[in-house]
Amino acid sequence: MDDRRLSKTLAHALRHAPWLYELELDADGWADLEMLLQALREAKTAFRHVSRADIERVLANADKPRYVLEGDRIRALYGHSLPGKVTHTPAEPPAVLYHGTVREALSEIRAKGLLPMSRQFVHLSAEGALAQQVAQRKGDAVVILTVKAADAYAAGVVFYPGNALVWLADAVPPGFLVFPAAD
Ligand code: HQG
């Protein structure tokens, strides 16, 4: 089994297009594991023998927690782009968070702040190094923005934990962002 491909297919099914797998997600983004396994078996020949053990292995070996398997159900922790919004529970964020982006996006971000774009939430990182990795997926001219999360929270911006290192927000106005001096 190609675990990387399986992980990417999980993202497709649980974050982006469950309807293509005839999956029903509840308001918190949970899907029934058995239904997911059946859908994967039918969707791709490579997955025709996929089992719970394969999913458990992919989750256990992942570089970071993206999914949670609980009893007979599974959900993506963050990253959703579904039309219906998945519920996350608000919480107080760390004082400072980071967002990795690319230079091309900066003028828009200066004007409008961070917006969810094609996802349901803005994705923020608890560590600069993670923000760096996130941004490198987008291009070479990487820029790390510091988010004054405590100030934003005090001003009413709502944050939600995704996993230990990923935080979500509906949007972050430009006044709570620190732009690097050179940009
Ligand atoms: C940018 C991965 C113009 C934003 C990662 C980013 C992450 C704006 C892009 C998770 C903007 C959206 C999410 C504005 C934001 N104008 N551009 N006003 N506001 N942007 O992929 O944060 O590995 O939807 O800077 O690790 O890059 O898949 O978000 O460049 O945690 O588990 O618009 O996905 O997780 O891009 O990444 P994305 P992201 P996994």
State which percent range the strand residues make up: 15-25%
3D shape: elongated
Using only C-alpha atoms, the radius of gyration works out to 18 Å
Strand order of the largest sheet: 1-3-2
Distance between the termini: 45 Å
Number of helices: 6
Low-confidence stretches: none
User: What integer is the average pLDDT?
Assistant: 96
User: What string, H for helix and E for strand, traces the elements in order?
Assistant: HEHHEEEHEHEHEEE
Say how many strands there are: 9
Give the helix/strand class: alpha+beta
CATH class of the largest domain: Alpha Beta
CATH topology of the largest domain: ADP-ribosylation fold
Largest sheet, in brief, is: 3 strands, antiparallel
What count of structural domains?
A: 2
Bound molecules: ligand HQG
Helix content: 25-40%
